[in-house]
Design goal:
Largest interface: A-B, 66 and 81 residues
Largest sheet of chain B: 7 strands, mixed
Oligomer: heterodimer
CATH topology of one domain in chain A: MetI-like fold
CATH architecture of one domain in chain A: Orthogonal Bundle
Number of strands of chain A: 0
Radius of gyration of chain B: 25 Å
Strand content of chain B: 15-25%
Distance between the termini of chain A: 11 Å
Largest sheet of chain A: none
Helix content of chain B: 25-40%
Chain lengths: 368, 532
């Protein structure tokens, strides 16, 4: 890092960087400038990590608690779901059943606070408990469901990024105004359609009518094509929407509209070489959100395409008021969410040199 | 029909929308034919679509619903077989005796039966199979209720097993014929409840064995080649014709119906009304039209609700239902009810004089009972309104168009009806708490006792009849008691019948289902497919 801490670097982050070492909370009387800078830097990283961790724990705990108490607002309980309905091959007088024993066995007779506490303690010990409906361990259910969902999510995410950029470039680069307008319309149109509807449409078109791919399941790689396509296109459309608007802004700025052409750069070159990087910043924010949306979107897609996965497991478990399974899923999803957010933050730093310079800022002083 | 392939890629969206609009036209008229010969052909894998809860489990004792029970029938056999006409014939038991007050049942077992893991089928295995259910108690609440007041199971010798009850249970014979009380191997009986839910752990003596679990997506069954103990009325006494059965769990009924039309699946359970009508006209698809031998479908009254505690109001509500137009609106295959029992129940007798329509009389009855139309058109009396709700599980959603017709008919006489489906958890909670006006009556047990679940405990006279039925081991002697019970229920209007229950099991004409049980579950070793 040879760039000195000059005006260009300091300007955007002026309030925090220079003032950080002297105003450290516990930084009373550092022994020397070098040690103080290094120590402050380490302390700062440590503090950031600690805050992040605390934040993560808080998010997971809040998600857990909120879900726990929300589930109690749902009518009925897992035991009532478990005994089935009167819609049976035989008729049964369900109203006469004595369910206290079963409630006792699965712990639903304990007080609310007790159940909450037991759940938290189990969680801290890494034990997610077992389903109230079929007694299977939540970890086993997750292990069955998670790989399928992750495959679908990652695949659609990986495909949606280049697709999104492609769509956005189509809406900005071409000379034909009509083509640009049309290309800009497609993502908005697609985003406004419900995922459920698109899924059903794809099934009718590509599975039932054309017979190209299976309509559902996760038994073969070809079964992955349709659900991935639905989700990847949706992600691409969302990315494209954001990229189009920020690209248009960038293209209109002086450096791209006046300076670059004056230097003889072509429009395509300018867009690819200069505008795209600047325009990608808001894209990253949407990317983080997209991961969260995917977690919800897979629930719909997994039901429509009859796939095993955490989304479908979640839907079934909420219906059955299966507390332990829902809470297990919530905890796992919250952890995933926190991790993704951290990754996005790192992404910001990689993409924007101003943010990257914050942490190692004192380094040039040391070297000097 | 129109193809869309030639359109330019730029018009992808337009193509999609256009295709969606055209699909309705394309779907029905794909191919013609089916047919084939009537000589069973060996081979092929049957693709069956089911719905329900806990579909990853193959445990027969938790699957008391029709859809999930069908493939489970391939895994386990039962002591006796309940024929389509409602009579009982031997199966794993060659004969049985029932004592005078139906408190003791003794079965003599076949000696040539083995479980698919090699274990021998004998009296000890039967006892363990039932003991396992009893030991789990509340976890198998429903089947344990069918088993009833069981005191003990004794095994005098290897081929004799005796069940002794503390109170009469003449329906026990029908109960042991169900898949839910099918016999599992001692190895399975030794498992915990949790282990039994894992998908591949259930071992029975049936014509198929579980080969693969696909979690919530279903499972795969494989033929057992040495199977040789089908029920006597089955056409095929040997190993199954099918090589295997793939169970799918496509959650959406319309997608599943489309899969059936395209041949992606061979047979499915649960059909939306529109698809029912279409299937009944589609030359490629067969849909069952025979009513299920249980009770008719309709509204079971909660007599504790203000208004419904008055027999005149209940009668008026029944008289105000024009069943012909309910059926006209709904689907092409349903038929009008003629009793509380459906017409195919062995204990049915024609009581259609008690199921009639007379809107004028209905209004007179309500007027006479003092229910006057209020400002919003809904009748009121002493601050109470004739506004009712009907609750049911999601599997009843396909009947909603019919319910809307009743809603409109009742509106004309000043009665309000709300209806909606609830999750099993909420439904059971409200049923148990009595927080409802009507529940959806859909008893599907092909037995005289089918009525007790819905109408027990509301009328002492009726309860006495039910008790007499349970204590009467002779089928012929139960008939007059059954007539009595049905007559009381209709006269007192504890039940407002709408139509007979047709189990919407639909299959392609290339799928042959020669034999079914009384509960309309197919005998899977008899099922065969036209060569593809």
């Amino acid at each position: 890092m040879t760039v000195p801490l000059s005006a260009t670097g300091a300007r955007p982050s002026a309030p925090s960087v220079p003032s950080a070492p002297p105003t450290g909370p516990d930084g009373a009387g550092p022994s020397g400038p070098h040690a103080s800078a290094r120590g402050a830097s380490l302390r700062r990283v440590g503090r950031v990590v600690a805050v992040r961790l605390a934040h993560a724990v808080a998010v997971v705990a809040a998600a857990y608690s909120a879900s726990f108490f929300l589930l109690f607002v749902l009518p009925g309980d897992a035991v009532l779901a478990r005994i089935g309905t009167t819609d049976t091959v035989g008729t049964s007088d369900l109203s006469g059943l004595d369910l206290t024993t079963l409630r006792e066995e699965v712990g639903l007779n304990d007080s609310l606070g007790r159940q909450y506490w037991d759940g938290l303690v189990g969680l801290l010990q890494g034990d997610l408990g077992s389903s109230l409906v079929n007694d299977r361990s939540v970890t086993a259910l997750l292990a069955e469901a998670l790989p399928n969902t992750l495959t679908l999510m990652l695949l659609s995410l990986v495909l949606s990024v280049p697709l999104g950029f492609l769509l956005a470039l189509l809406a900005v680069v071409p000379r034909s105004r009509a083509l640009r307008s049309f290309a800009a319309l497609v993502p908005s149109a697609y985003v406004s359609l419900p995922v459920f509807w698109i899924g059903v449409l794809f099934i009718y078109l590509f599975a039932i009518t054309l017979g190209w791919f299976p309509a559902g399941g996760s038994q073969s790689a070809s079964a992955l094509v349709l659900p991935t396509a639905v989700l990847a296109l949706l992600g691409a459309a969302q990315f494209a929407q954001v990229l189009i608007s920020s690209l248009r802004t960038e293209v209109g700025k002086t450096y791209a509209a006046v300076t670059a052409p004056a230097k003889g750069a072509s429009r395509t070159y300018t867009v690819f070489r200069h505008c795209l990087r600047n325009a990608a910043f808001p894209f990253l924010a949407v990317f983080g959100l997209r991961v969260g949306q995917l977690l919800a979107g897979t629930a719909v897609i997994e039901v429509v395409f009859s796939r095993n996965g955490i989304g479908r497991l979640m839907v079934d478990s909420v219906k059955a008021v299966d507390l332990t399974v829902v809470l297990g899923l919530v905890v796992v999803l919250a952890v995933v969410y926190v991790v993704i957010n951290a990754v996005v933050d790192v992404g910001y730093a990689l993409l924007d040199p101003r943010l990257r310079r914050r942490a190692p800022a004192p380094a040039p002083e040391v070297d000097a | 029909m129109t193809r869309h392939n030639r359109r330019r890629p730029a018009a992808v969206l337009a193509t999609l929308v256009a295709s969606a609009l055209l699909l309705g036209g394309c779907a029905g008229s794909d191919t013609a034919g089916g047919g084939g010969s009537d000589v069973p052909v060996e081979g092929g894998v049957l693709k069956y679509r089911t719905t329900g809860a806990n579909l990853s489990s193959t445990d027969p004792a938790i699957h008391t619903g029709y859809g999930p029970a069908i493939p489970v029938r391939g895994i386990v056999d039962s002591l006796v077989f309940n024929k389509e006409d409602g009579t009982i014939e031997p199966w794993l038991a060659t004969e049985w005796t029932v004592n005078e007050d139906a408190t003791s049942f003794q079965f003599t077992l076949r000696t040539d039966v083995t479980f698919s893991n090699g274990e021998t089928f004998d009296s000890a295995a039967v006892k363990q199979s039932f003991d396992a259910l009893q030991a789990q108690g509340a976890k198998y609440a429903v089947v344990n209720e069918w088993i009833g007041d069981l005191r003990e199971i004794t095994t005098p010798d290897a081929t004799t097993v005796a069940f002794a009850f503390d109170s009469p249970n003449s329906s026990f014979l029908q109960a042991v014929s169900t898949t839910s009380l099918g016999i599992v191997a001692p190895e399975t009986s030794a498992l915990s409840y949790e282990e039994r839910q894992e998908g591949t752990t259930i071992i029975g003596s049936g014509p198929f064995v579980v080969a693969e679990s696909r979690g919530e997506e279903g499972y795969v069954l494989e033929r057992r080649d040495d199977y040789a103990w089908a029920p006597p009325s089955a056409e095929n006494q040997g190993a199954a014709y099918l090589e295997g059965i793939e169970v799918f769990t496509t959650p959406d009924n319309s997608i599943a119906a489309a899969q059936l039309r395209s041949g992606e699946i061979d047979i499915m359970h649960n059909t939306e009304p529109a698809d029912k009508t279409e299937f009944s006209l589609n030359p490629d698809i067969e849909i069952r039209r025979e009513p299920l031998p249980g009770a008719a479908l309709g509204f079971v009254v909660n007599t504790a609700v203000p208004g419904l505690d008055d027999v005149d109001v209940r009668r008026a509500l029944s008289l105000a239902i024009d069943r012909e137009s309910v059926l006209e609106r709904a689907s092409a295959i349903d038929i009008a009810p003629t009793s509380v029992y459906s017409a195919s129940n062995p204990y049915w007798s024609d009581q259609s004089d008690l199921v009639s329509t007379d809107v004028e009389e209905a209004e007179e009855l309500l007027d006479a009972a003092g229910w006057e139309p209020g400002s919003d058109g809904v009748r009121e009396k002493d601050g109470e309104r004739l506004s009712f709700d009907l609750i049911y599980s999601p599997s009843t959603i396909s009947h909603e168009p019919n319910l809307a017709v009743v809603q409109a008919q009742w509106k004309d006489i000043g009665v309000e009806l709300d209806f909606g489906s609830l999750t099993a958890a909420e439904l059971n909670q409200r049923l148990r708490a009595g927080d409802y006006s009507f529940s959806w009556g859909s008893g599907t047990r092909p037995d005289v006792d089918v009525l007790r679940g819905n109408y027990g405990g509301i009328d002492p006279e009726l309860d006495a009849t039910f008790a007499a039925i349970l204590a009467e081991p002779d089928a012929a002697a139960r008939q007059p008691l059954a007539d009595d019970a049905a007559r009381t229920i209709l006269e007192e209007a504890y039940f407002l019948p709408l139509y007979d229950f047709i189990q919407p099991l639909a299959y392609r004409t290339s799928t042959h289902v020669p034999t079914i049980e009384a509960s309309h579950i197919p005998v899977l070793s008899d099922v065969w497919l036209d060569p593809r």
